[in-house]
Write a structure and sequence with these properties.
The complex is a heterodimer of chains A (255) and B (262). By secondary structure, chain A is mainly α. Chain A has helices at 2-26, 37-47, 51-82, 84-99, 102-113, 117-141, 145-152, 158-195, 202-211, 215-243. In chain B, 32% of the residues lie in helices and 22% in strands. Chain B contains eight helices and nine strands. In chain B, the strands form two sheets. Chain B has a six-stranded mixed sheet with strand order 5-6-7-3-8-9, with helices on both faces. In chain B, strands 2-1-4 form a three-stranded antiparallel sheet. Chain B is globular, with a radius of gyration of 18 Å. The two termini of chain B are 24 Å apart. The chains are: A mainly alpha (255), B alpha/beta (262). Chains A and B meet through α7 and α8 of A and α2 and β5 of B.
Chain lengths: 255, 262
């Protein structure tokens, strides 16, 4: 069971790379558009120099943005769960943030805040906040009324109720939001890095490669971003396994 | 009975939800250590009455005194053990942690000597299940954890809202006996809401029969069966006589208003 569940995703990815390789080689795809994975890997491991650094930079910024967005989103979610009035005031703003294409304004944010890491963190945090805010609100509100009453019957403070009942109960929806936000955060970091060229993350490397018409470095940044995303999602799954072992979604035999 | 010797005293308690009169002019006294049952048809407001005693609901009329103070005071001082209809266990907490939950909040009101919860768990047959999660337990086991959680407070009053209603008949039968066992060594007064005649007759010292909407006290029955009561009691003529008396009383209570003698 263990080996099979490990083997399946590896085989899936290998098949995908095989198909990609085949398509590029047989399909006569121009080399400036797409490179086969074998070339990208060879380039990454033999010729390139800056990629481990750039990957670290992008990964660290995406993680920072996620964590800041989680904290802000939780605060918003808690206030919205507590007050209908605040919910009605905050909801349109959050939806506006969520539906506005951040690609359209990220360059302006760079002009406004300046180059480097700051605009990158700003955009990535901003776009991730709504997901966490809505997930926290729903999660905190969905606590079992009977459990809440049991705590009321001994006059537990609202902080105690938050900490012992509402917050643990909100974890499943927070994890769902995190899965969604990981991709968003990575994309926002990558793209904004491209705009703020002083930063040396994957996005900046990619933008420079694009400008120089260098497909191999460009595709190497894509490759490294994908690995970052995969590592992030795997970490979330592991964390979910540990923290949500009580939840129906994580139980063996119920899926 | 004087106020000092009453665990709970209700005087003229009424409750109105908008146009609906749910409870009307309820006056009752529950003695310390007594097992007191509220029996009534659905819609008689027995759960509402229990919630008023717990301070989870405000009465529209009348006065509620719990251990010499208001229900809110009683909650602040942790004098009430609340057992809801569903076990309401926290699914991420183990059995042991669920049982400890109420002693971990509002800590300043905890009793000086904590209740030995592992002994209580053993007593209800849950020794060895301390580290289990609620979803690994049967419905009856979950409800036993909920009982222990309430008894773990060491409170002088326990309020139980049809705690066995969702269980199958065989499990309910066992639970009655377990509950009496826990209660007898606790010395607490219990207010027990049920619509089961057998539960009322087996468990109670006294049973208040409530009328259908609005809920009023139609009759109060003394159940004189000696204690400790054993499951065999349910096969005795005495038990059947008590059940029959309660059933008759309930039938009168459920009749249309005009036929109730007032």
């Amino acid at each position: 069971m263990k080996i099979r569940s490990l083997l399946a995703p590896i085989l899936g990815v290998a098949a995908f790379f095989g198909l990609w390789e085949l398509l590029v080689r047989v399909g006569n795809v121009p080399t400036y558009a797409l490179r086969p994975p074998s070339q990208i890997l060879r380039y990454l491991f033999t010729e390139s120099t800056g990629f481990p650094r750039a990957t670290y930079q992008t990964g660290a910024d995406a993680l920072k943005a996620l964590l800041i967005a989680l904290v802000i989103g939780l605060a918003f979610g808690a206030l919205m769960a507590a007050s209908r009035w605040f919910e009605e005031a905050a909801q349109p703003v959050l939806i506006l943030i969520q539906v506005t294409p951040w690609v359209a304004y990220s360059a302006s944010v760079v002009l406004w805040i300046g180059g480097g890491t700051k605009p990158v963190l700003f955009v990535a945090t901003l776009v991730c906040v709504p997901a966490f805010a809505f997930a926290s609100m729903t999660g905190l509100r969905s606590a079992d009324p009977a459990s809440l009453e049991v705590l009321r019957s001994v006059n537990a403070s609202s902080w105690e109720t938050m900490w012992r009942v509402r917050l643990p109960g909100a974890l499943p929806s927070l994890f769902t939001a995190a899965r969604f936000a990981v991709g968003l955060s990575l994309a926002a970091v990558y793209y904004t890095e491209g705009g703020a060229l002083s930063n040396n993350g994957l996005g900046a490397t990619g933008r420079k490669a694009l400008a120089a018409n260098a497909a191999l470095p460009l595709w190497s940044t894509v490759f490294c971003s994908a690995i970052l995303g995969a590592v992030a999602l795997t970490s979330i799954s592991v964390l979910e396994r540990v923290l949500l072992r009580w939840h129906a979604s994580q139980r063996r035999g119920t899926r | 009975m004087s106020a000092e010797t009453a665990a709970i005293r209700l005087t003229g308690v009424g409750k109105r939800f908008g146009q609906l009169l749910a409870l009307s002019d309820i006056s009752l006294t529950v003695r310390p250590g007594e097992f007191f049952t509220l029996l009534g048809p659905s819609g008689s407001g027995k759960t509402t009455l229990l919630r008023i005693i717990a301070g989870l609901e405000k009465p529209s009329a009348g006065e509620v005194v719990v251990e010499g103070g208001s229900p809110a005071d009683a909650r602040r001082r942790k004098l009430l053990g609340w057992v809801p209809q569903s076990p309401a266990l926290l699914p991420w907490r183990t059995v042991a942690a669920n049982v400890q939950l109420l002693t971990q909040v509002n800590r300043s009101a905890n009793p000086a000597t904590p209740v030995d919860t592992s002994a209580l768990l053993a007593r209800v047959g849950l020794a060895g299940f301390e580290d289990a999660l609620p979803h690994e337990l049967s419905g009856g086991m979950q409800q036993r954890v909920a009982l222990v959680r309430a008894f773990a407070l060491g409170a002088p009053i326990l309020l139980m809202d049809e705690p066995f209603a969702a269980l199958d008949e065989i499990t309910r039968f066992e639970m009655r006996h377990l509950l009496l066992d826990l209660w007898q060594s606790s010395g607490a007064a219990v207010v027990f809401v049920t619509h089961s005649l057998a539960e009322a007759a087996y468990l109670s010292d006294r049973v208040a029969v409530l009328t259908a909407r609005p809920g009023r006290v139609a009759a109060i029955h003394d159940i004189a069966s000696p204690r400790p009561r054993m499951p065999e009691l349910e096969d005795t003529p005495e038990f059947f006589a008590n059940v029959t008396a309660l059933r008759d009383s309930l039938r009168i209570a459920m009749a249309p208003e005009s036929s109730v003698a007032r």
